[in-house]
Amino acid sequence: MRIVALAGGIGGARFLRGLKDVVAPGDEITVIGNTGDDIHLFGLKVCPDLDTVMYTLGGGIHEDQGWGRAEESYAVKDELAAYGVGPSWFGLGDKDFATHIVRTQMLGAGYPLSAVTEALCDRWQPGVRLLPMSDDRVETHVRITDADGTRAVHFQEYWVKLHAAVDAEAIIPVGADTAKPAPGVLEAIAAADVILFPPSNPVVSIGTILAVPGIRQAVASAPAPVVGLSPIIGGAPVRGMADKVLAAVGVEATAEAVALHYGCDLIDGWLVDEADAASVDAVTAGGIRCLAVPLLMTDPAATAAMARAALELAEQVRA
Ligand code: FO1
Question: What is the pTM of this model?
Answer without folding.
Answer: 0.97
